[in-house]
Automatic annotation (TrEMBL):
<dbReference type="GO" id="GO:0019888">
    <property type="term" value="F:protein phosphatase regulator activity"/>
</dbReference>
<dbReference type="GO" id="GO:0051983">
    <property type="term" value="P:regulation of chromosome segregation"/>
</dbReference>
<dbReference type="InterPro" id="IPR018067">
    <property type="entry name" value="PP2A_PR55_CS"/>
</dbReference>
<protein>
    <recommendedName>
        <fullName>Serine/threonine-protein phosphatase 2A 55 kDa regulatory subunit B</fullName>
    </recommendedName>
</protein>
<keyword id="KW-0853">WD repeat</keyword>
<dbReference type="InterPro" id="IPR000009">
    <property type="entry name" value="PP2A_PR55"/>
</dbReference>
<dbReference type="InterPro" id="IPR015943">
    <property type="entry name" value="WD40/YVTN_repeat-like_dom_sf"/>
</dbReference>
<dbReference type="InterPro" id="IPR001680">
    <property type="entry name" value="WD40_rpt"/>
</dbReference>
<dbReference type="GO" id="GO:0000159">
    <property type="term" value="C:protein phosphatase type 2A complex"/>
</dbReference>
<comment type="similarity">
    <text>Belongs to the phosphatase 2A regulatory subunit B family.</text>
</comment>
<dbReference type="GO" id="GO:0140767">
    <property type="term" value="F:enzyme-substrate adaptor activity"/>
</dbReference>
<keyword id="KW-0677">Repeat</keyword>
<dbReference type="InterPro" id="IPR036322">
    <property type="entry name" value="WD40_repeat_dom_sf"/>
</dbReference>
């Protein structure tokens, strides 16, 4: 999205037309804040766009069906609702609140290495005052941003005129008391901390600790612990780099702190394993407290087994009792008290198992899909190809495939479930597995912390779906 391009706000969706979309416009991360009032996206061009929810409250009887602009969708969840029948339903569009350039392209002259400006992750800090704080990171540098509002400006300076120029002291004959005058609301984003020069490899994860004093950043081989007040040093808590790099067998793919226990965190690996570490046990967590791994079925062993078992995302449930992991074909839910196998396994797109050879040739097999919990940990969501995304209800074991697409919907429409036909006769509403578009993929999704509102990033488009209230 160029600075001078008209960014479109069309009732719950922020879209950039394919006609002028560039590589820099591709959304690379999506994250709601702790209240769900703000939603941040980062893109490959190093920009952060923050959306704010308009304040609009109505009862269920008065709540209108959500009206969207031409070609955009409304999602009606056939999932457990968070609200009771007589509870107030809050409605309101998400509109652009602030846009700023978080990272710029850099060049490491010592290593002759180009550092991309792409935003890999965004993490919000809980709001403590009128301002908002968020962490954003590219491959090498983490930044802490303060986003604040200003609707007053001081006037009546003694030494400066109204345009800020210094006045001639000889012309100052009286003293004035400066006053604050109302002005148009202005949202400012300022970098408060820059945490740099601590990672040799690309940062793939950042996670804010529940003590809100520290956070960690993880790259392929190391995890560092930072204090928010100290930018020039970090503490290395995990280091899996072997003495001889030829002996390297796995890399760290994702890491996250426990939502309630500040001493506990997990990290996943390219071998499909998850390690739970306790920082009370030792300063360097080179020995894990728990090790989660599912034994491989020898009958399913293939050339691609190691690639598709690599975990691309790991997330603690809000309760802290479970861990969810995403590999190439499945989403798994693990109980912290059971290490030998997951308690739930959901097939995301098992129909691609026969296509692994062509997916390997076009590099799609290395795509890193994320996964998210809903606010009550009862439903999980993850992405797939053809702009499909999948939802799994943990209680009823029902699942649904939905599509984020402007072409297949009308205003006030309800998203229809999609089905993929593997072989045989194809029904009218089904799509053949051979017709799937692998260039359209849902890698990044987010779920509102307390309501049935989801954000889905489809290439350079952001879709926001919510429950339809009848």
């Amino acid at each position: 999205m160029e600075e001078d391009i008209d960014t479109r706000k069309i009732n719950n969706s922020f879209l950039r037309d394919h006609s002028y979309a560039t590589e820099a416009d591709i959304i690379s991360t999506v994250e709601f804040n702790h209240t769900g009032e703000l939603l941040a996206t980062g893109d490959k061009g190093g920009r952060v766009v923050i959306f704010q929810r308009e304040q609009e409250v109505c009862t269920e009887e008065q709540a209108p069906a959500v009206v969207l602009g031409s070609g955009l969708q409304v999602l009606k969840f056939n999932l457990p609702s968070f609200q009771s029948k007589n509870q107030v339903h809050r409605r309101g569009e998400y509109n652009v609140y602030s846009t700023f350039q978080s990272h710029e392209p850099e060049f490491d002259y010592l290593k002759s290495l180009e550092i991309e400006e792409k935003i890999n992750k965004i993490r919000w800090l809980p709001q403590q005052n009128a301002a908002y704080f968020l962490l954003s990171t590219n491959d090498k540098t983490v930044k802490l941003w303060k986003v604040s509002e200003r609707d007053k400006r001081p006037e009546g300076y003694n030494l400066k005129d109204e345009e800020g120029r210094l006045r001639d002291p000889a012309t100052i004959t009286t003293l004035r008391v400066p006053v604050l005058r109302p002005m148009d609301l202005m949202v400012e984003a300022t970098p408060r901390r820059v945490f740099a020069n601590a990672h040799t490899y690309h940062i793939n994860s950042i996670s804010v600790n529940s003590d809100y004093e520290t956070y960690m950043s993880a790259d392929d081989l190391r995890i560092n612990l930072w204090n928010f007040e100290i930018t020039n040093q970090s503490f290395n808590i995990v280091d899996i780099k072997p003495a001889n790099m030829e002996e390297l067998t796995e890399v760290i793919t994702a890491a996250e702190f426990h939502p309630h226990h500040c001493n506990t965190f997990v990290y996943s690996s390219s071998k499909g394993t998850i390690r739970l570490c306790d920082m009370r046990a030792s300063a360097l967590c080179d020995r894990h407290t728990k090790f989660f791994e599912e034994p491989e079925d020898p009958s399913n062993r293939s050339f691609f087994s190691e690639i598709i078992s690599s975990i691309s995302d790991v997330k603690f449930s809000h309760s802290g009792r479970y861990i969810m992991t995403r590999d190439y074909l499945t989403v798994k839910v693990w109980d912290l008290n059971m290490e030998n196998r997951p308690i739930e396994t959901y097939q995301v797109h098992d129909y691609l198992r026969s296509k692994l050879c062509s997916l390997y040739e076009n590099d799609c097999i290395f795509d890193k899909f994320e996964c998210v919990w809903n606010g009550s940990d009862s439903v999980i969501m993850t992405g797939s190809y053809n702009n499909f995304f999948r939802m799994f209800d943990r209680n009823t074991k029902r699942d649904v495939t939905l599509e984020a697409s402007r072409e297949n919907s009308k205003p006030r429409a309800i998203l229809k479930p999609r089905k993929v036909c593997v072989g045989g006769k194809r029904r009218k509403d089904e799509i053949s597995v051979d017709s799937l578009d692998f260039s359209k993929k849902i890698l990044h999704t987010a779920w509102h912390p307390s309501e049935n509102i989801i954000a889905v990033a489809a290439t350079n488009n952001l879709y926001i779906f919510q429950d339809k209230v009848n």
